[in-house]
What we know:
mainly beta, 5-stranded mixed beta sheet, 4-stranded antiparallel beta sheet, 1% helix, WD40_repeat_CS
Amino acid sequence: MIPDRRLSSKFVSVEGVCFVILEEDDTSRENVTSPLTSTALEVVLEDVATLGLSTVFLDHNARAANNLARVALPVNLAETSPGTEDLGVSDLDEGDLVGSAESLNELDILGLRASLDKHAKIAHLKSILDRQLSLGSLGDLSLNLDGLNLNFISSVRHPKVSQFQSLAFLHALDCQEPHSDAVWDISWTATDTVISVSADGSIKHWDSTSGQILRSLPPHTLGIVSLSVSPNGKHALYNTIDGLTCLWDLENGEIVGKHESYARTGSEATEPSWSVSLNPKGGSYASTGGSGSITIHSAEPGSFGQRLSTLTSTRNKFGMQCRYSPDGFRIALATESGQMYIYDVQSSALTATFTSHAMAVRSIAWSPDSQLLLSASEDKRLILHDVRTSSSAGKPGSGAVASLSGHSSWVLSTDISPDGRLALSGSADKTIKVWDLSARAAVSTIQDTGEVWGVSWRPRPSPNNSAGAFVSGGEDGLVRWWRAAGAG
């Protein structure tokens, strides 16, 4: 694979992230013009690709032994198609993108070497598409493993085996009075009830034990496209196709806030909102739509819908979905172009831009600790991002730590389990998949009757370390409950 060099390798796994360490045999240096002078770190693309990882972190130990994630190189070549921007090299300490490729034909410009100041730079990789890798010169860069708690594994060709490899989910229940059109969004609430919204303009509140309707509202003229439920399960925020946003009190059944986002306020025209998200800390909500910006509104009854601020992205693309992080400190925006933006709520600053997808991102979901963001796209993939790898001034950064493939059509919906171990995805291929995020693998596939537009985990932690339960909604208008085999 690597000509004219004899290399021994070690494979390191740190919290699910793979490191590849190559050591050169001194006897193999006779044909090398710029020999490696010490232990070097480089990516073996052919081996790492078998893991299904979208990112491998490299530690060149340029400045300090504890800088474990200085440079990231996405390497998922098998799933990359011409015209995408999936591959790049980012300095995670500085937050700058130091190299990228817009097509497969340009990948041979990607590589790493050490300059005199021992910073990661771009070097030439010979015929990378044929897996003929030229390591170039790494100078005196070395890897110091002292003091690091690393788990060495024998081969990267044997990724972590999922503890959920025999996981099965059973169909537990169907709702008693389905919607007359597709369910477009759904949420399992903290009070153990379910809220669903539909293309028929209705919103329904369900009992999760019987599947019976607890409450419903008169249907709107147009479909409801977005839903956000408060962490305590007491309020549901929803939005119609034409931009009517309403706040529903789930305890008394009353609408306590209503805002027509498409109306004109004085001389200022406002666009119809498409996606809405409640601030988990209360008092406000976010919306996005045609401009690709995020608008923050008041969620207080006396001033509901009043504009508080606007967060603007660098490119005006249609906003498909916006979501507050569970801790309320960040807002994520997914767009029709496949780009995603992360904003800091307090400063309103754009802190990161992710370009992992080549097509529209239909759905995003945060991990419970607000550190990871999962995106579902029309490119048939789900990508897991680490938002802690924020890029300076919101420039495109790496951040992708896993790529999940297996759907044969658009991925329309996603969610992460309350313990952060599993993910759900619903697709236009009429299936629901359950993913083990640690193993980067699908552990269960459920065949549905139509496109699956909404999936939501039961927010209450599951007893006995079980996989828990979730709810789904799709093209047939039914709300379905599912539970892991053996779970109550």
